[in-house]
Specification:
By secondary structure, the protein is an alpha+beta fold. The chain has one domain: OB fold (Dihydrolipoamide Acetyltransferase, E2P) (Beta Barrel), CATH 2.40.50. The strands form two sheets. Strands 1, 2, 3, 4, 6, 7 and 8 form a seven-stranded mixed beta sheet that branches. A two-stranded antiparallel sheet has the order 5-9. The longest helix is centred in the middle third of the chain and has 19 residues. The protein is globular, with a radius of gyration of 14 Å. The termini are far apart. Pfam families: SNase. This is Thermonuclease family protein.
Protein backbone atom coordinates (compact mmCIF):
# COMPACT_ATOMS: atom_id res chain seq x y z
CA UNK A 1 0.00 0.00 0.00
CA UNK A 2 1.35 3.39 -0.92
CA UNK A 3 0.24 6.80 0.25
CA UNK A 4 0.02 9.84 -1.99
CA UNK A 5 3.48 10.54 -3.32
CA UNK A 6 4.62 7.07 -2.25
CA UNK A 7 7.15 5.10 -4.21
CA UNK A 8 7.98 1.45 -4.06
CA UNK A 9 11.70 1.01 -3.49
CA UNK A 10 13.90 -2.02 -3.94
CA UNK A 11 17.19 -0.79 -2.50
CA UNK A 12 17.37 0.82 0.93
CA UNK A 13 20.52 1.33 3.00
CA UNK A 14 20.10 1.83 6.74
CA UNK A 15 22.16 4.67 8.24
CA UNK A 16 20.72 4.22 11.73
CA UNK A 17 17.36 3.32 13.29
CA UNK A 18 15.56 6.37 11.92
CA UNK A 19 17.63 7.38 8.87
CA UNK A 20 17.94 5.62 5.51
CA UNK A 21 19.24 6.11 2.00
CA UNK A 22 17.04 4.96 -0.88
CA UNK A 23 18.11 4.35 -4.46
CA UNK A 24 16.94 7.24 -6.61
CA UNK A 25 16.93 9.79 -3.77
CA UNK A 26 19.76 12.31 -3.64
CA UNK A 27 19.74 12.93 0.13
CA UNK A 28 19.45 10.65 3.11
CA UNK A 29 15.95 10.39 4.56
CA UNK A 30 14.97 11.02 8.18
CA UNK A 31 12.03 8.77 8.98
CA UNK A 32 9.29 10.71 10.74
CA UNK A 33 6.98 9.88 13.64
CA UNK A 34 9.61 8.31 15.88
CA UNK A 35 13.12 8.73 17.23
CA UNK A 36 15.77 6.10 17.88
CA UNK A 37 18.99 6.59 19.85
CA UNK A 38 22.02 7.88 17.99
CA UNK A 39 24.77 5.43 17.13
CA UNK A 40 27.16 8.21 16.11
CA UNK A 41 27.94 10.59 19.00
CA UNK A 42 25.39 8.98 21.35
CA UNK A 43 23.94 11.07 24.17
CA UNK A 44 24.38 8.23 26.71
CA UNK A 45 25.75 4.69 26.90
CA UNK A 46 22.29 3.12 27.18
CA UNK A 47 21.35 5.00 24.03
CA UNK A 48 24.31 3.60 22.12
CA UNK A 49 23.33 0.00 22.90
CA UNK A 50 19.66 0.59 22.08
CA UNK A 51 20.57 2.53 18.93
CA UNK A 52 22.58 -0.42 17.65
CA UNK A 53 19.60 -2.70 18.36
CA UNK A 54 17.20 -0.36 16.54
CA UNK A 55 19.53 -0.15 13.55
CA UNK A 56 19.89 -3.94 13.41
CA UNK A 57 16.11 -4.40 13.70
CA UNK A 58 15.40 -1.95 10.86
CA UNK A 59 17.91 -3.81 8.68
CA UNK A 60 16.18 -7.09 9.55
CA UNK A 61 12.73 -5.71 8.70
CA UNK A 62 13.99 -4.55 5.32
CA UNK A 63 15.90 -7.75 4.61
CA UNK A 64 12.78 -9.88 5.23
CA UNK A 65 10.33 -7.57 3.43
CA UNK A 66 8.17 -8.57 0.49
CA UNK A 67 7.41 -4.91 -0.24
CA UNK A 68 9.02 -1.65 0.85
CA UNK A 69 7.11 1.61 0.39
CA UNK A 70 8.58 5.06 0.93
CA UNK A 71 6.59 8.28 1.06
CA UNK A 72 8.60 11.50 0.95
CA UNK A 73 6.91 14.09 3.18
CA UNK A 74 7.70 17.72 4.04
CA UNK A 75 10.13 18.17 6.92
CA UNK A 76 9.12 20.33 9.89
CA UNK A 77 11.31 23.30 9.05
CA UNK A 78 11.14 27.07 8.86
CA UNK A 79 9.82 28.32 5.52
CA UNK A 80 12.53 28.58 2.88
CA UNK A 81 14.94 26.14 4.54
CA UNK A 82 13.67 22.82 3.10
CA UNK A 83 16.59 20.90 1.55
CA UNK A 84 19.28 22.95 3.32
CA UNK A 85 21.55 22.25 6.28
CA UNK A 86 19.26 24.51 8.33
CA UNK A 87 16.44 22.03 7.79
CA UNK A 88 17.08 18.56 9.15
CA UNK A 89 20.80 18.69 8.24
CA UNK A 90 19.90 18.65 4.54
CA UNK A 91 18.03 15.36 4.79
CA UNK A 92 14.67 14.65 3.25
CA UNK A 93 11.85 13.34 5.45
CA UNK A 94 9.80 10.25 4.82
CA UNK A 95 7.55 7.48 6.03
CA UNK A 96 8.72 3.92 5.44
CA UNK A 97 6.45 0.89 5.40
CA UNK A 98 7.46 -2.73 5.18
CA UNK A 99 4.77 -5.16 4.04
CA UNK A 100 2.16 -2.46 4.70
CA UNK A 101 3.26 -1.66 8.27
CA UNK A 102 4.99 1.56 9.30
CA UNK A 103 8.50 0.73 10.56
CA UNK A 104 8.27 3.43 13.25
CA UNK A 105 5.23 1.75 14.80
CA UNK A 106 7.08 -1.55 14.80
CA UNK A 107 10.18 -0.11 16.47
CA UNK A 108 8.07 1.78 19.04
CA UNK A 109 6.05 -1.35 19.88
CA UNK A 110 9.29 -3.29 20.39
CA UNK A 111 10.73 -0.64 22.73
CA UNK A 112 13.46 0.39 20.27
CA UNK A 113 12.12 3.88 19.53
CA UNK A 114 10.09 6.69 21.09
CA UNK A 115 7.16 8.48 19.41
CA UNK A 116 8.23 11.85 18.02
CA UNK A 117 5.71 14.13 16.31
CA UNK A 118 6.65 17.49 14.86
CA UNK A 119 4.53 20.45 13.85
CA UNK A 120 4.61 21.92 10.37
CA UNK A 121 7.60 24.23 10.95
CA UNK A 122 9.29 23.00 14.15
CA UNK A 123 9.78 19.98 16.38
CA UNK A 124 9.55 19.70 20.16
CA UNK A 125 12.64 18.64 22.12
CA UNK A 126 13.83 15.24 20.92
CA UNK A 127 12.59 12.46 23.21
CA UNK A 128 15.37 10.35 24.72
CA UNK A 129 13.72 8.20 27.40
CA UNK A 130 16.58 5.69 27.25
CA UNK A 131 18.98 8.23 28.84
CA UNK A 132 17.13 8.65 32.15
Amino acid sequence: MQGPGGIQVKRVTVVDGDTIRARGQSASIRLVGFNTPETYNPVCEAGLALGKQATARLKELLRNASSIDLEIVPCACRPGTQGTEDCNYGRQCGKLSVDGRDVGRTLISEGLAAPFRCGTTACPPTPRPWCK
